[in-house]
Design a protein that fits this description.
The protein is mainly alpha-helical. Helix 1 runs antiparallel to helix 2, helix 2 packs parallel to helix 3 and helix 2 (32-53) packs parallel to helix 6. The longest helix has 22 residues, at 32-53. The mean pLDDT is 88. Helices cover 62% and strands 0% of the residues.
Length: 129
């Protein structure tokens, strides 16, 4: 499989997590940690798609900071609003498998859905070039 084909495959998985997010807008039905997990997954997969497209090796990780840093190390421009998505990193493991009780903020689900969607579209456009 080519790097481009692999990047497209991973991005397709990111779209599926984004689609799930859109269905989880109601916090009375979906808890924060479930919503946050799918946001983190969509962002992680979009990052890995971008890295695959550029033929940049990335380790098996859920660490968004590390993945963003790999792109920055390779002189990739990441819009500030999209770079702020790193804030959902803790939803990959910490809030997925540990107590969520220490979390104080309510997630702005509309903003996370929009920004995650913007990020997926940003990577999609990069892959078209």
């Amino acid at each position: 499989m080519s790097d481009l084909d692999h990047a497209k495959l991973i991005l397709d998985q990111a779209r599926k997590d984004l689609k799930a997010l859109k269905g989880m807008i109601d916090q009375n039905i979906f808890d924060e940690e479930i919503f946050g997990f799918h946001a983190q997954q969509a962002i992680e997969k979009a990052l890995k798609s971008w890295l695959s497209f550029l033929k940049i090796y990335y380790p098996k990780t859920h660490d968004l900071e590390l993945l963003f840093s790999l792109l920055e190390d390779h002189k990739q421009v990441i819009p500030i609003k999209l770079r702020q998505l790193v804030d959902v990193s803790d939803f990959a493991v910490q809030y997925r498998y540990e107590s969520f009780e220490g979390f104080q903020d309510n997630l702005d689900r509309q903003d996370i859905i929009k920004t995650t969607g913007d990020f997926v579209l940003y990577v999609e456009e990069l892959l078209k070039k």
